[in-house]
Design a protein that fits this description.
Shape: rod-shaped
Mean pLDDT: 70
Low-confidence stretches: 1-13, 144-150
Strand order of the largest sheet: 2-1-3-4
Largest sheet: 4 strands, antiparallel
Helix content: under 10%
Radius of gyration: 26 Å
Strand content: 25-35%
Order of helices and strands: EEEEEEEEEE
Structural class: mainly beta
Length: 150
């Protein structure tokens, strides 16, 4: 058995194949997927594909592949400004415009694009922004936007 993520890329490790015996007089047997680990990373659901092959004293039926989905317990955090608005004096050369926050820390890096609109005459005239994308480092829940030459 091999563990694959939802995009069909091989993921982490190969599980051991095995043999299932269904005892005489019984009509069912159970294969248990054990050792599922919550790794704390938001990565989407993952699948375990089980395939039956080479039966003895039975013939292989048409449903010889089973997909088990490990559901992702981590939900991507919300991302938002800490405040709906802010202001600052034009005489101060650098100021924090507004912290951008994640609702909780995440096991994965997060980024957010932003757009600039308003009545200021434009970047390079009234203000200069550092970057067009705001990166969040893994486990960091607060980042600030800065304004230079304001």
């Amino acid at each position: 058995m091999q563990l694959r993520n939802r995009n069909r890329f091989w993921y982490r490790y190969t599980l051991a194949d095995g043999t299932l015996t269904i005892s005489a007089g019984s009509s069912t047997g159970t294969i248990t997927v054990a050792g599922i680990v919550n790794d704390g990373t938001t990565e989407g659901s993952e699948t375990v594909i089980l395939s039956l092959s080479s039966p003895s004293n039975a013939t292989l039926g048409s449903d010889d592949v089973h997909t088990f989905t490990i559901l992702e317990p981590q939900v991507a955090p919300d991302i938002q400004f800490a405040n709906a608005s802010s202001s600052g004096a034009e005489s101060v050369s650098s100021k924090v415009l507004n912290p951008v926050q994640l609702s909780e820390s995440s096991g994965s890096d997060a980024t957010i694009n932003y757009a600039i609109t308003g009545t200021a005459t434009g970047s390079g005239t009234d203000f200069t922004l550092l970057t067009a994308q705001q990166p969040f480092s893994r486990f960091n829940i607060n980042n600030d936007y800065y304004c230079w030459n304001c």
